[in-house]
Each structure stands twice: as structure tokens, then as C-alpha cells.
Amino acid sequence: MKGSSRCRPGQQTFMEQVRECRDKGYLLSSKKIGSGAFSKVYLAYATQERMRHNPKLSSDLQGKRHAMVAIKIVSMAEAPVEFSQKFLPREISSLNATYKHLNVVQLYETYQNSQRSYLVLELAARGDLLEYINTVSELRGRPGLEEVEARRLFWQLVSAVAHCHSAGIVHRDLKCENILLDDRGLLKLTDFGFANHSGCKNALLSTFCGSVAYTAPEILMSRKYSGQQADLWSLGVILYAMVTGKLPFKERQPHRMLHRMRRGPTFRPGLSPECQDLIHSLLQLCPHARLDLQQVATHPWMLPATHTLFHNVLGGVTPEKTMDSKFPAARELGMDLGPSGPLLQLQRPQRPATRPTSVFGVPKLSEAHLRRGTASAELELCGSHFETADLQ
Ligand SMILES: Nc1ncnc2c1ncn2[C@@H]1O[C@H](COP(=O)(O)OP(=O)(O)OP(=O)(O)O)[C@@H](O)[C@H]1O
């Protein structure tokens, strides 16, 4: 056809994707809502026909009263074999295992051909927690969220992580960028590419993965670790980031990072002692000394939110109910919750640009670099993403 031969390669690929989605019952829009190393995420609409045939999709979208989904398209041509054979299947099986929870992004279905894999996901249209913290910080003129707002979000996160752990999944990459918000202000945990099925609660892992700023010290020290306890450390880092707008430990050198971890976090004046205590109790160097999720849920700082949790998780959420509670702090500030605002204290890590090293300086080609296509990258110790070869 004359028309299609005039298309540029990118347009042609997009048109192929539109057709492939339409064949599966989704109308792909040209609105790109995100991109990963080997993937692009687009806004799409489920057709009535598709909803009739997919109970997961119809039950979820009926509650939301819209037909929008996020379709993540992974290019098999661009992705290394390891990504398509290891990380992508891991992400899909973890999302299937964690279905169904209000605070975990839902995977409705997948389809693929030799060129591409498609993941049809629940849409979380309000960006990630990092953007949210920075936007609110800027509007408040002070870094961090109000404690009441942090508590509301942290409750949802704890609930999501508890759900994953009870399904035998450890996330291993909990960080603000992997926590999305939907248009009802609900938190949605995502990015299970590093997740691990730990059938046994006490199974020890040895794969070095995650983002350094959020990574537990036992992993930085290359020790065998419990995935659950490592996730608890990351929760402590995320809570600190929520209430202070900063990362608790930010060092380029691993030994300095560990030194900072040993000294413990410092807090801004005015942060409640209960909140400080909860963060301290999660950021314990000794993994066994960390609170477990049950203890987190009953910690005095968390208690004011108990009612909200029971209301949202156990009482069911309707759009009417949740619209009222959407970003209360942000609303009071009269903020527009649309596209993300500028970054303040919390900064998104840059993709590594030179040769990778292990945290102890030994050059190493990490799986994360393979996963992200940055094989010639240097591990950047302030929030960078990494995974070394499995030591087992
Ligand atoms: N369900 C979703 N709803 C809305 N936006 C999403 C959704 N899933 C992903 N996104 C957006 O797309 C971006 C890329 O998503 P993707 O899952 O490919 O990231 P990723 O795998 O973490 O990428 P990488 O780790 O390579 O950076 C996310 O950062 C987010 O902004």
C-alpha cells in the first residue's frame, strides 16, 4: 500500500501494535504514559467485547466505571534473551500470583508474537510516588508529605507488601518509582521484574538486586538474605522519603553507605517521635531486629489509619467513596494532580553510563544492566538499579 510505505519505521511499528491490540480487543491510543528499558506503556481502552470475554478485566473495570487500561509493550527484538526468558516471565508470574489486591497493579492478560509481548495492566494514571512527593513538597515549600498523608499511603503499601509476602512473593525492588497512584489516589505497587517466589518463608536468597538507596545492608554486604526482611528495610527507606522528601542514606561509595547505615538516619525537626520510632525499627542493620509486617501494622504511628484500611480494603471501594478521599493534602493545597512537577530533594537515578562494578568495586556485568540494556554501565550508588549474577 502506498500510504503505509510512506510511514516512518516508528509509525509503522506503532500501526502494527495498534492492529495487534485491536485483534485482541483493545484500542491502543497514541498516549505514551511511560517507558522502560525495553518497553513502552500506552493508554488503551478495552472493548465491550473484550470485557465480556475476560472476567478479570470486566470485574475490575466495572468497579472503576471506565474502560481504560495500560498496555505495556515489550520489544522482543530489543530485549536481551535474559530479559525475555527470565525477568519478563518472573514479572508476569508474580503479577498473576498477587492477583487480586487493591494496592497491587492488576495484570488482566498477556499476549505475544515473535516481535512483541503485551501486558494489559490496570491503569495507574497519576504517576509515581516520587513525583507525588516532589510535587507536594514544592507546593508546601517544605520537603516531604504531611504525616497524615504519608500514613494513608504507607498503610496501603504495607497492605500490598503483606499481600505479596502471603502469596510467597518478595518484591526486592521496593522504591518510590515503583509505587504508582491511580486517579482515585490509591497506591498501586508495580514492577515485579526482580520479584522472587520464596515458597518457604525463611528461605535465604543471594541474588544482588534492587536500587542501592533502598537496598538492605545485608544485600550490600553480599550476605545471604531473607527477601521479606530486605523488603522491610526498603519500606523504612520509603517511609523516610515520604515524610522528609529525602533519602535516608545517600552515598556513592558502598563503604560510606554502610557507614551511614550504621549511624542510622537523621530526622528533620518536627517529625513525630512515633514516626521516627517506626522508621528506626525498620532501618535496623540486623534483619531479625526489624519489625515484621504485623508489628508495623500495629505500630502506634500506624493506628490512626486503621479505620481507613478496614474501610478501603475490607469494606470495598467505590468510585464515589474514593473520590472524596483523593489526595486530601494535595487538594487542601489546591494543587493540580496532573502531570508531575519538578523534582526537589528526591531525584530519579540516572541510567548508569559506564562500566558496571559490584558494590565493592569489582567490575561485573550485572543482570540489571542486561535487563536495562546498559551493559557498559557503572553502578551508581545513589538509587541505581542493579542485580548481579545469582551466587547460589
Ligand atoms: N499500570 C501502569 N499505569 C500507568 N503507568 C504505568 C503503568 N505501568 C507502567 N507505567 C509507567 O511506565 C513506566 C515504565 O514502566 P515499566 O514497567 O516498563 O517500567 P520498568 O520495567 O520499571 O522499566 P525499567 O525498569 O526498565 O525502567 C513506569 O515508570 C510508569 O511511569
Automatic annotation (TrEMBL):
The reaction(s) this protein catalyses: L-threonyl-[protein] + ATP = O-phospho-L-threonyl-[protein] + ADP + H(+); L-seryl-[protein] + ATP = O-phospho-L-seryl-[protein] + ADP + H(+)
Signal peptide: none
InterPro entries: Kinase-like_dom_sf (IPR011009), Prot_kinase_dom (IPR000719), Ser/Thr_kinase_AS (IPR008271)
Gene Ontology molecular function, alphabetical: ATP binding; tau-protein kinase activity
EC number: 2.7.11.1
Keyword flag ATP-binding: yes
Taxonomy, superkingdom: Eukaryota
CC terms in the record's Gene Ontology section: cytoplasm
Protein name: non-specific serine/threonine protein kinase
Record organism: Chrysochloris asiatica (Cape golden mole)
